[in-house]
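So, can you check this record?

>
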Amino acid sequence: MGLEFEVTPDVLVPNPDTETLVQRAVEWGRANPDRRRFADIGTGSGCIAVAVAHYLPAATVDATDISPAALAVAARNVAKHDLEQRVRLIEGDLMEPLERVYDAILANLPYVEKAAALPAEVTAQPAVALYGGPAVVNRLLDQAPPRLAAGGIVLAEIDSAVAGRLRLEGFKGSRLLKDLGGRDRVLEAWM
């Protein structure tokens, strides 16, 4: 992404897989310049919200997280990149605290299942930001349609173990985007 972010033990360390989501969000935003309202669900360090606002200067981003500690890190990253006027941080579970309709809903939620074998450097990160499996992603997919503008998109980072177990009722279509390693990594669904 070319941007620097503060991370602490309270948030996930941004990884190259998330760039796939950010690149698609920016590509979509540039192709649809009248679409300016973005939501970043489960923002953690705020890297997705900051990157989208940085690369799409007309965009505003409402970013939620259930963790006050993560939001404190996100606030410092938003301030570091001078985006306080366009990135709003909100404490709450998924989309529950949001009342607006968005053109794009972005999320890197805790999609890993507890039984997954992960390297030690990954499992050292906050469990609340790692483990949730398809259930947490499906909760977002259930909440998204009434909050998504016609023609809007949802972009959610996932892994192949979750991909086949997602509920996509209410969406007109969907596809899976591959990461830099050629693995299914981002769900794109649209209204």
Observations:
- Strands lie at 37-41, 60-65, 87-91, 102-107, 148-157, 173-178, 184-190.
- Residues 45 and 72 are 8 Å apart (CA to CA).
